[in-house]
Amino acid sequence: MLIPRKVKHRKWHKGRRRNTGVATSKVTVAFGTFGMRATTYAWVTSRQIESVRKVLTRYVKKGGKIWIRIFPDKPITQKGAETPMGKGKGAVDHYVCIIKPGTVMFEMDGITETAAKEAFNFATYKLPLKTQFVKRHV
Asked: How confident is the model at residue 47 (pLDDT cuts 50, 70, 90)?
């Protein structure tokens, strides 16, 4: 699973999960031929990214290549079960990546368009957001 090697601050503020704004970076297919673009706002965990990677790898086999354009760098804390209120912030439990609409999350190359569409369709089931299939504009 993806986790940062080193972070400036171990625990972050949660921030507001507002559904405003669209992505300004990672909005085009830059490396591969086909991509999967987010159409809604969500937090994607490192486990979900790994699950999608496994699905895509199954379709590419040895013929193609996959690029993961997102990285989970936001730490999410969790207090232990049955812990009373107070006593500070909990320990870091997992990491998430904040995804805005328009972000190209995954890219593929080296397989046919129909296979890529099918792979991205199955990969969408592993994510907590809606996606769309995009092609590189030449």
From this structure: very high
Contact residues for 99 (Cβ-Cβ < 8 A; gap 6+): 23, 38, 41, 42, 43, 44, 70, 105, 129
Cα–Cα distance, 96 to 120 (Å, whole number):
20
pLDDT by residue (tens digit) across 94-112? 999 999 999 999 999 999 9
> Sheet harboring 91-99: ordered strands across?
42-45, 91-99, 74-78
Is 101 within a domain? yes
For residue 134, what are the CA distances in angstroms to 52, 58, 125? Answer: 17, 20, 17
Q: Of 101, 109, 117, which is closest to residue 136 (Cα–Cα)? A: 109
C-alpha 127: how far from chain center: 8
Amino acid identity at 84: P
pLDDT of residue 65: 94
Domain extent, residue 47, equals 39-79+90-133
Contact yes or no for 129/39 (Cβ under 8 A) = yes
The total domain count for the chain is 1
Is pTM beyond 0.85? Reply is yes
